[in-house]
Amino acid sequence: MTILLLIRHGENDFVGKRLAGRLAGVNLNSAGQLQARQIADALAGAPIRAIYSSPLERAVQTAEPLAARLGLEIQIHPGLIEMDIGRWQGRRLKELSKQKAWKTVQEQPSAFRFPGGESFAEAQARIGAALEEIAARHEEHELAACFSHSDPIALAVAYALGLPLDRFQRIAVGTGSITAVMRAQDGWRLLRSNWSSDFRWPRPPGEKQKPG
């Protein structure tokens, strides 16, 4: 039973505003750097045998504090990279959400291909193959950390659970969050989803979040 920790990169200035895709030079902001340190604190005592990361800067930067804490090398794995969103890369969410295609992305992603980029089905096949390949590298009961991105992690969870592709958008993956999946002899199991040390209950609009 190999356990993989699927960890989304920390905050950056594109989150919630623009689709970064595979743009180079998208770095963690101060909030994201704090999340990376919190991940390292949370996992410092875990028996992690290996750290894998998407090649994009924001994922590698999130992995660095944990790698330093555990004395492990970050192994770049191309299968963990963000989706190829083609001509949507770098565009503002406010603008894209007005397009007719946006409804398809949200409600029927199995029928969508990003203009000049990947389809969701191709991305899920890629991330699923990456999980299988990484799990096969490790012995039973070993633990590995995999730093990736929101959609790839949600697609991975849907793959692990055998959910229809058109339901994967229901899986939340916050920045700096940890999702744990286990590869057993009879298939995958979801152990924990979207956990983060700074989790707060959602508040109604306009209500201030209490500290602590």
Strand-pairing-aware structural class? alpha/beta
Arithmetic mean of pLDDT: 94
Largest sheet: 6 strands, mixed
Whole-angstrom Rg: 17 Å
The shape, in one word, is globular
Q: CATH fold name, please?
A: Rossmann fold
CATH class: Alpha Beta
Oligomer type: single chain
Domain count: the total is: 1
Residue share in β-strands: 15-25%
What's the CATH H-level superfamily name? Phosphoglycerate mutase-like
Count of distinct strands: 6
Order of helical and strand elements: EHEHEHHHEHEE
What is the second-level CATH architecture?
A: 3-Layer(aba) Sandwich
Helical stretch tally:
6
- What is the terminal separation in angstroms? 36 Å
Strand order of the largest sheet: 3-2-4-1-5-6
Helix content: 25-40%
Stretches where pLDDT falls below 50 for ≥5 residues? Answer: none
